[in-house]
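[recover] target loaded
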């Protein structure tokens, strides 16, 4: 087996909805250190952040782009409405889901222009994770059309319509591999994984209240993702595992981008210390 290049860093970016905004702080830190990942693996929002960085966007560029978007609340809402699956008439019927979003349309509306159409046009190799609905296994993409693969990776059941690629029906990658650090094992010397899943904690309980139905559904996905990650890490752990304190944010809290970035700021020093220790060793 070929040994990975000395000092090479692989970046695994996990699923977690708006909590994945924290990935930007990690990318900024790598930029500060002059480190370009040799390979990026991402699931759901991690695939989106990974694609942006792999396309050549620096962390500072990502931050500026996101904050500009988050400040335009009306524009964001218009974009989401434009990406809805049903027509206006469905709002007044019992058929369909008026909140269901077409992730491919959403990707076309919201992805930065820097993100190319094909994996082959990225500057950094990228692997994205989706879930094959019928085989119940992870589905990996690393070549061919990029945007459909990103749409599939973020297609959270009940919120986004599944994506069909090459005859396969695909849903959110977090269902099978929410933090894909295992895909980097043996391919880079140092694996950095960023877990933004934010499964509910006792301290997050709002005044002892029972969660609302949508919150309970999303939290169920997060609990499942936490179990998958813990089990996988027991067998093959990443060299550096970062967990920002973002569990208090909801999966759709994209308008709270400034607060999420602030909550993730401690990752900067954590990553610098961890990499200094690894690279000096």
């Amino acid at each position: 087996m070929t040994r990975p290049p000395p000092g090479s860093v692989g970046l695994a970016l996990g699923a977690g909805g708006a909590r994945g905004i924290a990935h930007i702080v990690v990318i900024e830190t790598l930029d500060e250190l002059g480190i370009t990942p040799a390979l990026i693996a991402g699931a759901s929002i991690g695939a989106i952040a990974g694609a942006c960085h792999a396309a050549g966007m620096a962390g500072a560029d990502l931050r500026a782009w996101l904050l500009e978007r988050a400040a335009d609340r009306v524009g964001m809402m218009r974009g989401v409405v434009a990406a809805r699956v049903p027509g206006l008439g469905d709002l007044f019927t019992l058929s369909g889901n008026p909140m269901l979003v077409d992730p491919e349309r959403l990707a076309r509306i919201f992805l930065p222009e820097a993100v190319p159409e094909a994996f082959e046009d990225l500057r950094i190799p990228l692997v994205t994770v989706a879930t094959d609905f019928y085989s119940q296994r992870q589905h990996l993409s690393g070549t061919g059309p990029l945007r459909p693969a990103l749409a599939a990776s973020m297609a959270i059941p009940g919120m986004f319509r599944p994506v069909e690629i090459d005859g396969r029906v695909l849903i959110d990658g977090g269902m099978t591999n929410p933090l894909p650090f295992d895909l980097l094992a043996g391919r880079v010397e140092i694996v950095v994984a960023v877990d933004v899943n934010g499964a509910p904690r006792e301290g997050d309980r709002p005044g002892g209240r029972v969660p609302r139905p949508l919150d309970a559904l999303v939290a169920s996905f997060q609990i499942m993702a936490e179990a998958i990650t813990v089990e996988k890490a027991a067998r093959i752990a990443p060299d550096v595992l970062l967990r920002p304190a973002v569990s208090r944010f909801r999966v759709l809290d994209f308008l709270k981008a400034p607060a999420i970035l602030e909550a993730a700021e401690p990752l900067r020093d954590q990553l610098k210390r961890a990499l200094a220790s690894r690279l000096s060793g």
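[recover] notes: The two ends are 22 Å apart (CA to CA).
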